Amino acid sequence: MKRVAILCGGPGSEHEISCLSAGGVLSAINRGEYEPILIGISRQGDWMVLPLDYPLSLENGTLPSVSGNYPEVTRGKNGITVDGAQLVVDVIFPVLHGTYGEDGQLQSDLDQLGIPYVGSGTVASEQAMDKSDAKTFFSSAGIAIAPSITVTENEWRRSPSTVTQSIEPLGMPLFVKASRGGSSRGTVKVKELNTFAAAMDEALSFDSKVLIESAIDGAEVECAVLEIDGTPQASIPGKVWIDPQYEFYDYQAKYLDGATRIDIPAPFSAEIIEKIQSYALIAFKAIGARGLARVDFFVTHDGEIIINEINTMPGFTRTSAYPKMWQATGIGYSEVITHLLQSALAR
Description:
Number of helices: 11
Order of helices and strands: EHEEEEEEHHHEEHHEEHEEEEHEHEEHH
CATH superfamily of the largest domain: ATP-grasp fold, B domain
Number of strands: 18
Largest sheet: 7 strands, mixed
Helix content: 25-40%
Structural class: alpha+beta
Number of domains: 3
CATH class of the largest domain: Alpha Beta
């Protein structure tokens, strides 16, 4: 039986969502083949072994988090130790999202351990997390992207008027996004120029690099990619429905208010569905992703498909879009987890 270390938490802004995802993995992993070990990472970056019954669900509107006094995990080139004793781990499932979890930092740390892990490596994670860089890869691979510019904090502080002038060709509305933010944190929809400066300040509070792009008028569509026996495959895509009270698919709508759902299959022609699946696989390969990803698109009213972003460790609860799309495609939640672990162990 293989021993699987499930990592959750972390110092990033998606700490709580990571805990929810880990709770899902823990509940669905095939314990006939895998023995789970739960490792939490506090907001301060401390690693600790958590009991398998540690609370990892939404309770009375409160999201779970990693805290408390538990055995400390020490990492080194020879693997993982707890209280001076070697912790035998065959594979790591890092269910961390956003900063630290998806931007290559955690992957760089895991590479030092010499233990295989689920998901993309350091370089691919870093490239995917940076929306501005990722768009360059997607465009080079032949996938349409929204018109945009990238601005650094220094450029904005040095001459806000120059930046403000440079966005005129993008029109209104537009989106101001922390280039390396996750779960729509640090993303602001701007409908009037007089709110642009405040949007920049909000985005810069999450990252020193900001992506400013034209808003696309179209349906939001997601497609899941999963490596099965070494070959990436694309799921049936789903269309995101958002309660009209929300301007866009933001953090509050995604996780806290039940204000979204995903309709699977997405209500498009077979031709458009096939194109979405094809583009999802092209995007996955373009950044060198491994294991899994969720690729997000817009489909305009005239059928144009424009890529939005790729997530190398998408939300992974039972009710998250990623497992739902695979369920509709014929692969259940537990089976998805098994494929991911098999892919990691085969590398």
